[in-house]
Q: What sequence folds into this?
């Protein structure tokens, strides 16, 4: 049910005004806002950097029709469209990838960058007149923030019940032990001192951060700002924790339960809703990056949690077909791409299998998205390809291997890599039927999961592209980046 408070009415009125302004401006200066998100270490920064760099250098991208047909005449970086949003540090990130062979730092806050694509139109009267252009506003934000959106419709009791249920399942039980032990020793119907509240809130936050570690690779970790608090660090809005509702209720406004409930509602109104209204609700297209290989490495709990996290993300979107009149009042995301990243960590023979796995993870949520009229697609890709492919003769068997430089400290079966030498690695082979993975998960045995499919995934350094000093015109290699760009904006370059 909508909240028709004065504040909410003002926000909705501002949203309508913003939509009207966008539609009017878009007639003469067409713009599309592309949201890029994903869970931790899924490669958001790498994806955006490679997308921009490949367009700026006019690299060969056969699936991007406008590029393949020679109709894109110029791509350029433009001034920041929103002065209150930090600029995406493209130049710094591309130098890190191409010169230092270092992966850029992960996304910790929202940022933005505008590209202008000038092109010759291929359809209708437009091809007889002046060239067309499209502004692409790329908006980068942490996936952890996106996972907060479902909280808007949850009261404190529901949030607490969900969080406590998760904390007692599988590997989470040991990670949450300190925090859960503290909860057992408190009385939620009585007041609590601020130092004690801060101590337990820190234990709750530490539990969420431990879940995010790549060893566990959990995906469902709201509240997201507890992982990336930024300038909210230490404020009451991020100093709370879930509590079970007691039989005595919450009649005392100074009780711990009432305090936590009040701070939770403050978190929703002061943190989540402004993000939704100012940024998320203005998106036109969205790509979600998923690191399924990391979840497989971490084991059964991580894969199940990834499935839950993807569903939560998809069901948070305002999705559906757009038309001119509806755009005057609300904006919808009409295209969503779900990309399984790091496909270069597998031989191409397993790429279709990786895509099938992602389809299996999102099939329930995709049903709702498809029913809304929005387009959705799934792809296995690598925004920057860090490996090459080869074959290795093992007796009478020929194994498909990948060749790259594993990061320093990466290990396979006790063998450690130094981050300097190229190695040929057999990463394993995903099954044809992704349901076989979920059968291994149902056995509750991570040993079954890894041994059945003999999976060996390691992190690789970015590729060594050239020994020349000037690398500005060298394009970053990729796998199916052009297919992703064509799906997301190709229809606007006709």
A:
């Amino acid at each position: 049910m909508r909240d028709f408070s004065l504040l909410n009415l003002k926000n909705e009125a501002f949203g309508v005004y913003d939509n009207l302004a966008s539609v009017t401006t878009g007639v003469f200066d067409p713009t599309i806002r592309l949201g890029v998100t994903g869970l931790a270490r899924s490669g958001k920064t790498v994806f955006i950097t490679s997308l921009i760099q490949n367009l700026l250098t006019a690299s060969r991208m056969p699936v991007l029709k406008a590029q393949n047909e020679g109709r894109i005449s110029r791509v350029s970086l433009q001034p920041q469209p929103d002065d209150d949003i930090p600029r995406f540090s493209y130049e710094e990130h591309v130098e890190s990838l191409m010169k230092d062979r270092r992966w850029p730092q992960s996304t910790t806050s929202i940022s933005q960058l505008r590209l202008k694509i000038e092109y010759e139109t291929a359809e209708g009267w437009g091809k007889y007149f002046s060239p067309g252009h499209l502004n692409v506003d790329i908006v980068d934000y942490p996936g952890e923030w996106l996972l907060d959106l479902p909280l808007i419709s949850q009261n404190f009791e529901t949030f607490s019940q969900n969080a406590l249920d998760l904390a007692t399942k599988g590997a989470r039980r040991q990670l949450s032990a300190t925090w859960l032990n503290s909860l057992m020793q408190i009385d939620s119907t009585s007041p609590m001192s601020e130092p004690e509240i801060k101590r337990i809130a820190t234990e709750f936050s530490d539990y969420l951060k431990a879940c995010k570690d790549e060893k566990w690779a959990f995906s469902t970790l709201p509240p997201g700002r507890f992982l990336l608090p930024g300038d909210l660090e230490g404020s009451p809005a991020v100093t709370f924790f879930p509590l079970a509702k007691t039989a005595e209720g919450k009649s005392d406004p100074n009780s711990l339960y009432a305090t936590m409930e009040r701070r939770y509602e403050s978190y929703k109104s002061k943190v989540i809703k402004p993000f939704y209204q100012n940024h998320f609700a203005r998106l036109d297209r969205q790509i979600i990056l998923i690191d399924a290989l990391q979840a497989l490495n971490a084991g059964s709990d991580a894969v199940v949690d990834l499935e839950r996290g993807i569903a939560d993300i998809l069901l948070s979107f305002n999705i559906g077909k757009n038309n001119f009149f509806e755009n005057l009042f609300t904006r919808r995301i009409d295209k969503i791409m779900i990309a399984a990243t790091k496909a270069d960590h597998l031989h191409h023979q397993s790429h279709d299998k990786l895509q099938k796995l992602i389809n299996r993870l999102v099939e329930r949520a995709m049903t709702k998205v498809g029913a809304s009229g929005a387009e959705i697609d799934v792809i296995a890709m690598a925004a920057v390809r860090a490996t090459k492919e080869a074959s290795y003769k093992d007796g009478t068997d020929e194994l498909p291997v990948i060749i790259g430089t594993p990061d320093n400290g990466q290990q396979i079966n006790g063998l450690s890599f130094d981050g300097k030498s190229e190695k040929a690695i057999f990463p394993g082979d995903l099954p044809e039927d992704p349901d076989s993975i979920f059968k291994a998960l149902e056995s509750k045995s991570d040993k079954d999961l890894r041994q059945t499919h003999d999976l060996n995934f390691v992190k690789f350094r970015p590729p060594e592209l050239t020994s020349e000093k000037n690398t500005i015109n060298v394009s970053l290699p990729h796998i199916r980046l052009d297919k992703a760009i064509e799906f997301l904006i190709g229809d606007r370059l006709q």
The CA atoms of residues 32 and 136 lie 5 Å apart. The longest strand covers residues 111-119. Residues 1-17 have pLDDT under 50 and may be disordered. The radius of gyration is 24 Å.
